[in-house]
Amino acid sequence: MTRSPAPVVRTPAGAVRGVRDGSGELYRAIPYAAAPVGAGRFAAPAPHPGWSGTRDGARPSPTAPQPVRDFGALDMTPYFGPGWVRGEEYLTVDVRTPAADDGARPVMVFVHGGGFVTGSTRAALYDGHAFARDGVVLVTVNYRLGVPGFLDLAGAPRNRGLLDVLAALGWVRSAIAAFGGDPGDVTVFGQSAGATLVGALLATPLAAGLFRRAVVQSGSGTGAFTPEQAGRVTAAASAALGVAATAEAFGAVPDERFLAVLPALAGLDLRTGTAADPLAGLSPFSLVLDAQPADALADGPARDVDLLIGSNTEEGRLYVVPQGKPEEGAEALGDVLFGSGTDRLALAHARISGGRTHVYSFAHRSTALGGRLGAAHTVELPFVFDVADEPWLHGATGLLGPDPAPAGLAARVHGAWVAFAGTGSPGWAAYSAEHPVVEVFG
Fold this sequence. Notes:
The protein is an alpha/beta fold. It has 12 helices and 12 strands.
């Protein structure tokens, strides 16, 4: 795709120039907060000090420190991206827009997944050309991960990764009009860990007024750790690092050591007398909350927010099939991780929002790994972003397998997301306890 320089856009912190191609304009690596360095890695996000001159928005951002994740026989590079690309200034957004003008278009803000430890805006799956093509301004967000993002420490605010997303939404409110977006028509959407963060935003008082609609893709309204569970992870990290469990002590530890101790945090028994491990041992990090979002929606903006929510029919297969593990029990694993928490959040929202809840189920089965991957976790993403025909998603190890994507499915799924962002309705009836309407894709 041919690219040329895009216009200079002035943000509250400074000017940025992106690139123009056949789908519109792309502005990359725009800071929404100051770089989290040293002790600042364990503080709330601070305003960016700004820059002089014009920032180069053609180059991708550094990424949050993160480990390499191996999914065996399946190539998950399009999902995880390049891993840790070093650089201090990674609290950034990418903006893909039809044009940086006064168009006041719907805005969609995407929060990536990756188990609270991996992922970035650089992942190929999150290319936003289809959204720009269809009249939407797409913003993708980097946030702190792992120890800096989610470890519960004395002297540090909890859920710093969530605070980063809130700061990014604040940046959108103040800056997106200059990119052709409507700051009053924002949809925040996320997948997996990102979807769990979006679910928490619905119950977060500080999120009021920052978005009008939300999409929760394969997340959970019951995926948070209790403070007691988080305390076990903190104690294990403190012991592995040999430092006190305080923000001050951890602030002197380099990021490389945080990654090195992650194996020591794997497999911790987080079951307590009152709570099971909501992530079934797959990640030592999650939100840390006194109440699950599904039980605390009335505390946040949820009743005034349109919600599109759903999961895939065979979520758990991603965690067993590529690794050659027994496939029995994958359905139960998927329900523990995503299904039951999605159902609870959908029902809780429907009860307080008055017809604003829409539910889907994604059932298309990938033919990857001999057809055994099925409708696993992440398989809906190529259809949401309308990139399902890209060759890097196919082949023997590709996420969608060797067979072509079903004709029309990406247009249908992507079209529903775009329609929801524009109108609050994805094209089917609302969900309620009395009429539990679920749209099935595939």
